[in-house]
Design the sequence.
């Protein structure tokens, strides 16, 4: 399992972890957010959330 906390400035690190399952960051009310395809649909990733790549290749978001 690999875990990376999204800081709002580490998109490239998240992209390296998720590959094509992450959408480029977008900004809303002064904060950066991402969308990650968890396999069950896209889930928003806010600054401070942790993106987890499980050993089986699945992704999840911890708040």
Sequence:
């Amino acid at each position: 399992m690999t875990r990376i906390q999204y800081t709002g400035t580490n998109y490239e690190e998240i992209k390296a972890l998720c590959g094509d399952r992450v959408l480029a960051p977008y900004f809303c009310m002064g904060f950066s957010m991402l969308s990650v395809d968890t396999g069950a649909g896209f889930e928003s990733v806010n600054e401070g959330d942790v993106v987890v790549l499980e050993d089986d290749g699945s992704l999840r978001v911890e708040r």
